[in-house]
Amino acid sequence: MKSYIFLLSIIIITIGFVACDGATNETNETNEKNDIGNVNINSVESEKEDISGQKPTDEHVCMRHVLAIRKKTGDYSCTGMIVGGEVTDGRIIKEITHETYEEFERIVVSFDNKDIIPRFSARHAENPQTLIFAIDGVRGFKVDLPKEVNSSLVDVIYPIMTLDDSQVRFGIIFNQQIKFEVYELTEEARIVVDIIENEMHVGDGRLYTIRTKKHDFGETIGQIEGFLKFELGLPEVRMLMDSDNMYYVEAGKYHTIEDAERMKKKIEELDIEFEIYIHEIVGNELHCPDC
Fold first, then answer.
1. DSSP 8-state code for residue 55
2. What are the phi and psi torsion angles at 15 (to 5°)?
3. How far apart are the two ends of the chain, measured CA to CA in Å?
4. CB 81 within 8 A of CB 121
5. Would you tell me how many other CB atoms lie within 10 Å of the CB of residue 87?
6. What is the model's pTM?
7. Domains within the chain, CATH numbers bracketed
8. Which of 55, 147, 245, 246 lies at a 20 to 30 A Cα distance from 212?
């Protein structure tokens, strides 16, 4: 009888532990699911808000490096850089086209192959609004860029001098504040850029930038850009084209004239062989009238 009672006690205790452990595991699993769900939902909502550009643009808030995906999502970036493609070589840009749709405008970069898109980056900047494309592994750029674009958003699409024979670059200057979506289509290997107006954009106030004098398209302007970007390591270096098809290089933006003057002096102390000056930006500059 005692043995029976002892055995029954052990069974009851064991069942209790199992039930308790099961309840604990179920509670932990439920908490874990809730935690994961909350993190995912919050991060997705935060990501979607940033990428779609529903807030006023601020380069320090909205700047984001995003990988290009292989479909259109409708999520537009207000600033930042998009990267995509694969490491390859020997590709040729077959065509660059511009099209206007009811809700957006589209620029398509087509390659000579059917499936592989070369490694590329598309960097957005302001004052003036630009998207600068750099495409690696491309040995041929045998197409004419659209010279006259019937567009309310795009001002000009222009080639950028590149001293690397395995890279091709071109820029897009916009005549409105824009938001953009860059994605890939592997069927016939295309990079697609969809553009809409950024109606929520807020002015940047007063800024100062260092710019070079105008030069023709050629190695000289390419060497100047390379010196400022790679030798000096200056941020936000970009090559721009004016309405006369002349080129200049911009080297950073500064919040005060004193900061710009200090940087200008630092550059000139290196005995450079090209002229630079300080350009004042008030509000959102869409063009460069005095370059």
1. S
2. -60, -40
3. 105
4. yes
5. 9
6. 0.73
7. 59-197 (2.60.40.3500), 206-282 (3.30.70.1070)
8. 147
Token pair in block for residue 52: 């779609």
User: Among 160, 152, 118, 111, which Cα is nearest to 135's?
Assistant: 118
pLDDT per residue, tens digit, the chain (291 aa), is 444 444 444 444 444 444 444 444 444 433 333 322 332 222 223 333 332 233 333 443 444 558 888 888 888 888 889 999 999 998 889 999 999 999 999 999 999 887 889 999 999 998 889 999 999 999 877 677 776 678 889 999 999 999 998 999 999 999 888 999 999 998 889 999 999 998 876 565 789 999 999 999 999 999 999 999 999 888 789 999 998 999 999 999 999 999 999 999 999 999 899 999 999 987 656 554 444
The Cα 91–Cα 114 span in angstroms is 11
DSSP conformation letters of 86-149: B---SEEEEEEEEEE-SS-EEEEEEESSSSPPBPEEEEEETTTTEEEEEEESEEEE-S---SS-
- Cα 90-110-169 angle, rounded to 5 deg: 65
- Reduced to 3 states (helix: H, G, I; strand: E, B; else coil), residue 268 is helix
φ, ψ for residue 264, nearest 5 deg: -60, -45
Side-chain half-sphere of 93: how many Cα atoms within 13 Å?
Answer: 27
Q: Are 56 and 202 in contact (CB under 8 A)?
A: yes
- Tokens 């620029």 locate to 107
DSSP assignment of 1-49, as one string? -HHHHHHHHHHHHHHHHHHHHHHHHHHHHHHHHHHHHHHHHHHHHHHHH
